Amino acid sequence: MQGEARRVATPVGEPIGSVDEEKDEQGIAHLVEHVTFLGSAKREGLLGTGARSNAYTDFHHTVFHVHAPLVNTSFGEPTPMLPQVLEALAEIAFKPEFLHNRMEKERRAVLAEAQMMNTIEYRVDCQLLQYLHEENALGYRFPIGKTDQVEKWDRQMLMAFWEKWYFPANAVLYIVGDLGSEVPMIEALIERAFGAVPSGRERLPSSSGESNSQNGNGVAHSGNGVSKEPVALGHLKRKHEVRPPVAHRFGCGPLKAGEAPPTARVFKHRLLQHFMLSLFCKLPVQPMTRIRDMRAAFMVRIMLSVLQFRLNRRYVEAQPPFIAIELDQSDSGREGCAVSTLTITSEPKDWRGAIQVAIEEVRRLQRFGVTAGELERYKMALLRDSAQAAEQALSVPSADQLDFIMESLALGHTVLDQRQSHELLQEWAETVTQEEVNALAATYLSYISHYRAEEELLAAAEKGEGEFVMPPGPVRMTSIVACLPAFTDPSGQSSGGGLPLQRGASMTTDKHVDPAAAVPTGDEEEDSNLQDVPEGAVRFELEPADIEEALAAPSMQVEAPEDVDVPKYLLSPEEVEQLVAERQPRFIPLERYGPGSDATPPADSATGIVQRRLSNGMKINYCQTDNEPQAAMVRMVAAGGRALEGQGPGPSGTGVVSIGTRTLSESGTVGNWRRDQLELFCISKLINCLLDADEEFVFMDVHFAIGESGLQAVMELLHLFLEAPRWEESAMARAKQMWLSHYRALGKGLERATADRIMTSMLGPDRRFRDPNPEEIEALTLEGMRNAVMTQLNPSNIEINIVGDIAGADVDNVVLRYLGTVSPRAPAQPLAVLPPVILYPPAHLRRQAWHLKDSDERAVAYIAGKAPSRWGSFGADSPVTAPVMVVCPQVLPPNASSAQIERNTQIRRAHPLYADVSLRLLTEIMNSRLFTTVRDALGLTYDVSFELSLYDRLRTGWFVCHVTSTHAKIDEALDASLRVLRSLPLQRVTPRELLRAKRTVLTRHESEMKNNVYRLGLLTHLQNEHVPLKVPECLRDLRTMYEAATIDDVNDAYAQFQMDDDHVFTCVGTSGPTAPARTPVLEGSSAVLAEQAALQADMEAIGQPKAMDGKLLLSVMAAIQGSGLGQALGKVATQKEGEKQ
């Protein structure tokens, strides 16, 4: 199948998953996947070629996949990649060695993976699946299996399982990519790679007892890969047609004898934050093989869209009783059924009101259906969406194409590409009637609207009453699952935790854990996680019967909905003409080229980028791409961000920019338009917006469809956003509540809380880079937010970037008319560039360990420290200025002279990209070494990573190394990671390491260049005076700078980091019923936050010398002087505290 240009995706799928395992094999499919995949030498040969490989196991499948460029240019002459990829896949699937060393490494990795992914979100996911599928193996036979079994299997058991399932007749090979018309050649390559694999044969009874050492292809492997003589074999193996049964209890058809409505099942945990209720209805998959099947799926999308819009209207009420209400209806190839799910999320105290809103809106749609206006709007929007997908058919990444194909085949759908689907849709979409959609809604929503009235509903349907003409007729609920916090504050508000976004999202083997690790249920009264009420909290009591009564409440009567008038324009043509006449917008010369230069210069010859500057000071960069035909993106950027927030509580204090930006987003409208009108306007134009703020900028990203005046509609929206934004008290209340909830969750998330402790240690009293606390949130005012945000949204401080399927003349016209007419304001005050200051407090604050009380054990560690700026010369802390001229370096031949090398080094290191390129290559090399040592050689972790947080305006950043492990191994994993970070001066970077890093980064760059979001990031800041070194030449020279980089450049980048004990921060976080001996137990979020407040107080003392005692002052002085006395002073301080006691 055709896919993205110049790349190919090639997976091998085996129809073997966790439901196929025997009772004593739970998790063996996953472990076999690990050993065969990571034990392949030919897979390792793909490293450094630009290929990406991975593997996963789910309920029904094991898949090995490689996503690679068409040509390997890493070594010598370019060679085709597909033969190498196919040979690697053949070895992975059919020629594994099962070496003892590899088995033990992967056993440790799987056990570490289990603990790493055992988050509260995963545990909720397990509970939802357990109750959704309690009648079959999907409810308890999860892919990770049972860790106690994983610890015991030997080589013979793994090989016996592999023999049973891994043979050619049981595998499917997919190839998707830029293949052209070379099908015969590809078939020959497949034959060459897989044709020599022996056919699997049934094993004849053997008295030797050696059957477990044989593989499924009739060849036995010893520990060193040497073959033995084959034993007696029988008939050829065939694809496994008979699988362990997965029988579902569906929510349709006649009621069985004694079948009653489901009761609510409760999962309660101390780490949960919100009330979350999930209502499930399982239905058979309807394979999409006929036009009527497509028609039904199209009408389901209309129904879901209408309901979501109506729920959004309820959300913008002054004090909505819910956080989110979402209805999803989708087929699941992984689970072998279709599932309709209504998810209701709210603050614990608001649970009853949230259920009421959800049931009211579902009943309204189930009884009265959609309005004529709603039907036409969403038909047109879905048709436009389909047309856009058809235009982009050839630009869909091969990996996405593969996922679509494999899922469609698993469900029994006829596979059509986007263009074929759209052509069929066009033929009949206009014939979809209001009566059909209403009948479908009456059927599919009846499980929610008629809970506890199932018998009456079925009886009425049998008599022909009601509108249940759509198959499968009336449906009923199959499961009700409530996930509740164990404790709340006295007012009933949440006190910590988080929830998954999608059921089953973690049910593949890179994201799951042993459900047998005591995932608690509501029936376990002795569960320790429900005991020990945290200080300041109360138990959250809610009986299942109360939830059931609320769902079935007959008092919730509803009326037919009213339609909404949707504006054709946000600014009428007459208004625009008047603005143009009054303000006379024009283009003016770019600042970089001076006042006498051309105001409308042509596109840059190397990059295709066009730059403009409007008379009101706004800067414009745009570039035409064919990445997404008939689509484009706009990014508005205003310099400032959270770095300009005040300190501490106050109307303009900590959080004023972040929460102010969220307030504008919550308002969701501009000018005199209501929010529901603006939302429907955006839906009709296929416009999606995101408004947010980070540490340096306020930004808005807009993705939209070209055609139907899409670009003009976006510019109308931006004009009104800058001229007439809506600041509403109710929106501020919702924004504050969201940030309060986010803060309360901090103390219940092991990773977040551990990382926050590192940040507190490094930054001390500077709170611009951390979440505002409740006192700071409460002190903010609407006027303070308006002043802080609108000061940054000054036209002279704004840059607009546009990327997509656009025409230059159209862009110039709409930009001039709609953005050029934004009122100019007084020049923005120079932004105070106040970078974060990394403090070096005493050793006990730089090296911390803490414990979170939990039902399950987990462990994580962070290493952090100061990082250099990505712009400007290394070591230069002064503000940078725009370059006069940018010279591109050369990629020198191996025999270059010393004079050429020296000159090229000077050119390269003077280039604006030098620091950024060197740091990115260093990051790749560090990550490769961490994986090789800590993950692969030592087996201490499943996941370890090194990341840099680098800024564009601020001259200081930081690095973070994150590693997970078990309680027993986390300190060892931390020490091993730190040794790797410090090893570069002793274990110098090799040419092979550098070449692999270059290839990885450049391949990623080439792949991302097909993505408009990535292209938009490249354009951003090209005219930003606060990022003066980013100029179009940076984009022109990016590839050459990577290719020309040297080992000395990487060493130069590494020299900017201080990895000694006095400059590195570490924090180990553990969770579980009991703490490791060395760490204090923190009971619940209130205790965690109280302990963090004490830590914050210590750091504030360091940031304010007048309040420090002598001990802390000496420590700070020692750190500033670089005397290395921090650790010694920490010990002295500890001794003195002991003497006082």
TrEMBL record:
This is Uncharacterized protein. It comes from Coccomyxa viridis. Belongs to the peptidase M16 family. Residues 16-121 form the Peptidase M16 N-terminal domain. Gene3D superfamilies: Metalloenzyme, LuxS/M16 peptidase-like. GO terms for molecular function: metal ion binding; metallopeptidase activity. One of its GO terms (biological process) is proteolysis. Pfam families: Peptidase_M16 (PF00675), Peptidase_M16_C (PF05193). SUPFAM superfamilies: LuxS/MPP-like metallohydrolase.
